[in-house]
Amino acid sequence: MITYLFSYIILMVIIMNLAISTLISMKFLLYSDSGSRYEQWIKPIIYVAMLYTAMSVSYHFIGVVAHEYLLALLIFYLVDKKQAIILVIITPFVRMLFVDGHLTVINIVASLAVAVMVIIYMEVSDKLIANQTLSMIISEVLIVATNLFLAPYIPHVVIYSIFNQPTNWIIRASVAVITLLIVRKVYFQVTTLQNNNTELQKEVSFDKLTGFFNYKKFEQDVLTNVDENVDVGIAILDLDYFKNVNDTYGHEVGNQVLRQFSIFLRENLAYKLSPTDLGIYRYGGEEFVWIFNPSMFTDVKHFLKNIQNDFLEIPLGDKGHHMSFSVGISFSRHHKYNLKLTFDAADDLLYRSKKNGRGHIVVENDY
């Protein structure tokens, strides 16, 4: 009895660690912006791997499979409800194929019945019970009860020779509740720390006014760039006569114009960025740097000219000003793939654009 309870405590600790790792991985993939088309397959693979580990450890420590739906339940309440429903359906098949060792009609039917009831418990509890913790506890307790009720038809769910049904019920329900509470608390602590780190990273790397990368990030990505044989285009865009707006109407109006210009650039340039591009930076004041893949354009000057014409039609600030912007564009293939040299060339071309009367787009030769 004591040995069995000790084994169950060890199992609880292991399941908690597996659950926390799984939840954090799922959350990371859910909000990841890598754009990988394989991400949708990574999540169920992680789940199956963790679930199989939990089942195997459970079978090793206490001789039965316990709390196999706990991972899916936690994912349902804390990460992604739709994903969790799919994982609940996967769960009985993982147990039948990799743990039970044999399939019978009654085993399959009973296992699928439990899975269906798990989905019903989670959905109904989530809708009817406002308190998330209480809803989770009730769902898991009902899952444990259903599992034990159908235990005679599902292999490796309960051992009657060691504990009778009521004793199994008490142990399983108690461990389930303790595990849920601890995992939920630790998960929120970890995700809060992650969110704080993300916000700190944003403060370090992003410009608050425009939402684009800031100069510090520009230094890291461009000015200290190691030479690579990858052709990169650098366009420097500068609002024309922006100083006049600040001097005449004040910095608040100037900031409003910058925000509008930033939104315009994001809508017209960001969608052209590939996953390997570095992005858009606020270099300073009214000057922005757009780093792009030249192979995505047949004529980047024509592309920017159309955007420039669209921008001229937009009324800016409280006074409804219409402004233009000047552009200088250079390509790293002309500068031994050195981004610092490429940027310097684009900066010279921007100066030439402004010297020619503003509103011009000057592109490096033989583009």
What is the structure about, briefly put?
The chain is of the alpha+beta class and 367 residues long. It has helices spanning 2-30, 39-62, 70-78, 81-100, 105-128, 132-149, 165-205, 215-223, 242-249, 251-269, 300-312, 339-355, and strands at residues 233-239, 279-284, 287-292, 325-331, 361-363.
Number of strands: 5
Computed over alpha carbons, the radius of gyration is 30 Å
List segments where confidence is low: pLDDT < 50 over at least 5 consecutive residues: none
Q: What portion of residues belong to β-strands?
A: 5-15%
Helix/strand order: HHHHHHHHEHHEEHEHE
Helical content band: 55-70%
Number of helices, where a helix is a run of at least 4 consecutive DSSP H or I residues = 12
What is the residue-mean pLDDT, rounded to a whole number? Answer: 83
Class of secondary structure makeup: alpha+beta
Strands of the biggest beta sheet: in what spatial order?
2-3-1-4-5
End-to-end separation:
79 Å
Sketch the major β-sheet.
Answer: 5 strands, mixed
Form type:
elongated
Describe what you observe in this structure.
The chain has 367 residues and is of the alpha+beta class. Helix content is 63%, strand content 8%. The chain has twelve helices and five strands. It has helices spanning 2-30, 39-62, 70-78, 81-100, 105-128, 132-149, 165-205, 215-223, 242-249, 251-269, 300-312, 339-355, and strands at 233-239, 279-284, 287-292, 325-331, 361-363. Strands 2-3-1-4-5 form a five-stranded mixed sheet, sandwiched between helices. β4, α12 (339-355) and β5 (361-363) form a beta-alpha-beta unit. α1 packs parallel to α3 (70-78) and α3 (70-78) runs antiparallel to α6. The protein is elongated. The termini are far apart.
